[in-house]
């Protein structure tokens, strides 16, 4: 929904920089990490993380350059499953097809997955509640924004990847050689 076109009065966004014309504030960090199914992790050979098969949302291989892969093409070559639907990618990883990266609030709450990395700093975003500046003093908007600040802020550790520690197996490592 576009705030500038008045399609919404309030938006919750994970972004590096909010629109210039928006009014609001940062709630907390919004982070991503790598995840895999316990069964896959138990049987996966000992190899650097960039050599594992990956389940990816279409068009996101470049997000992990240079953190995991040296090039986008290397990442795409490691993709064994790609789909536009993030839930399908999550399910493919949970079925043991390979590793995936997910927002921490998704991966950490999925009992079928184990986090195998710390949050990936290069992917860090900010969770924000924003509105159009003309609406910031409207009673209903102020009330809802206040509610959202409180409710989303109460789960800041989940959004920021601080609720769950990694279950990182010894073989998950970065090969910088």
Q: What is the secondary structure topology, with strand pairs?
A:
Elements: E1 10-15, E2 23-30, E3 32-36, H1 38-43, E4 54-57, H2 72-78, E5 79-83, H3 86-94, E6 100-103, H4 104-107, E7 114-115, E8 125-131, H5 139-154, H6 156-159
Parallel strand pairs: 4-5
Antiparallel strand pairs: 1-8, 2-8, 3-6, 3-7
Model description:
- The protein has 177 residues and is of the alpha+beta class.
- It has 2 domains: 10-30 and 125-159, no CATH class; 32-123, D-Maltodextrin-Binding Protein, domain 2 (3-Layer(aba) Sandwich), CATH 3.40.190.
- Helix content is 26%, strand content 23%.
- It is built from 6 helices and 8 strands.
- The chain has helices at 38-43, 72-78, 86-94, 104-107, 139-154, 156-159, and strands spanning 10-15, 23-30, 32-36, 54-57, 79-83, 100-103, 114-115, 125-131.
- The strands form 3 sheets. Strands 1-8-2 form a 3-stranded antiparallel beta sheet.
- Helix 2 (72-78) links the parallel strand 4 and strand 5 (79-83).
- The N and C termini lie far apart (45 Å).
- The relative contact order is 0.27.
- The model is unreliable at 170-174 (pLDDT under 50).
CATH class of the largest domain: Alpha Beta
So how many helices? Answer: 6
Helix content, binned percent: 25-40%
How many discrete domains?
2
Q: Provide the succession of SSEs.
A: EEEHEHEHEHEEHH
Strand coverage percent: 15-25%
- Class by SSE composition: alpha+beta
The overall pLDDT average reads 88
State the CATH topology of the largest domain. Answer: D-Maltodextrin-Binding Protein, domain 2
Low-confidence stretches: 170-174
């Amino acid at each position: 929904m576009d705030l500038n076109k008045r399609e919404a009065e309030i938006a919750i966004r994970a972004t590096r920089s909010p629109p210039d014309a928006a009014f609001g504030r940062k709630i907390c960090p919004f982070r991503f990490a790598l995840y895999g199914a316990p069964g896959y992790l138990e049987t996966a050979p000992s190899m650097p993380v960039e050599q594992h098969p990956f389940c990816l949302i279409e068009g996101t291989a470049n997000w992990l350059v240079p953190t995991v892969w040296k090039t986008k093409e290397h990442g795409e070559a490691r993709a064994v499953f790609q789909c536009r639907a993030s839930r399908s990618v999550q399910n493919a990883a949970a079925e043991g097809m390979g590793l995936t990266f997910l927002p921490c609030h998704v991966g950490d709450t999925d009992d079928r997955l184990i986090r195998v990395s710390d949050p990936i700093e290069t992917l860090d975003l900010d969770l924000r509640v924003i509105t159009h500046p003309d609406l910031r003093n409207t009673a209903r908007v102020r009330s809802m924004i206040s509610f959202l600040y409180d409710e989303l802020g109460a789960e800041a550790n989940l959004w920021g990847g601080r609720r769950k520690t990694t279950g990182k197996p010894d073989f998950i490592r970065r090969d910088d050689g």
